[in-house]
Amino acid sequence: MEPFSYQIKRTPRASKARIVVTLEKIEVIAPLHISEDRLHQFVKEQWHWITDAVQKLQSRAAQHRSIAPKAYHDGASIPYQGKTFPLSVTKTHLKRIKIEHALTFTAHIPHSQWDTIGSDEIRAAIIRWMKINVKLTVEQLVCQHGPKHQLFPKSIAIKSQKSRWGSCGIHNDIAINWLLALAPLEILEYVVVHELCHIKEKNHSKQFWALVAQHLPHYRSVRLWLKQHGRSLMLGI
């Protein structure tokens, strides 16, 4: 039996003892009248359940770890469109940081700022580049899917959102989360189609999903990918 530490928390509101397992701690919530010896015995009796719960939480956490590099320096791995690309940092005679992407990401650092620009500035430049390119890709996807059912948004905005991938307002303005730049292109396409379909169907009715399916017959598998990996994407870069 592997040892683990736990805390006992007594509360008059508890009617019986129960165990709460999180990544941070194991806690025994207990009423005032149960003895400490009985609570320790209770934990021993629940040992298999506790260790199983800890393992499941750790496994889930491993699946949702940040995909961002620890620092933005030469050789760092930059996530983009479902893949990772090495970062190359070079000097330039330009006055501002310039980001380019082909087989690698290249951060061109002004000669005059070579010794002062650090990881945070390079990261910010990469994010600006990604936002611009997501906007261009979204516009292309709207041109691709919009004409089929006359689903044309009033405006397109690229936003930083902590809990939503996209939205469609009452006036048919759509917003897309720039973090979708980190996902495979088909995921961004699904979110764009999803919001475009809200121009015609404002809820998630059968008619709405039927409309989505007309644009993306395989949308269920793409939607599942986003549910499985979305937390990691939301951690950003």
Kindly summarize this structure in a few lines.
The chain is of the alpha/beta class and 237 residues long. It has 6 helices and 10 strands. It folds into 3 domains: 7-63, no CATH class; 77-127, no CATH class; 134-234, 2-Layer Sandwich (Zincin-like).
Written description of the protein model:
- The chain is α/β, with parallel strands linked by helices.
- It folds into 3 domains: 7-63, no CATH class; 77-127, no CATH class; 134-234, Metalloproteases ("zincins"), catalytic domain (Zincin-like).
- The protein has 6 helices and 10 strands; from the N terminus they run βββααββββαβββααα.
- The longest helix has 31 residues, at 119-149.
- It is flat and about 70 Å long.
- The mean pLDDT is 92.
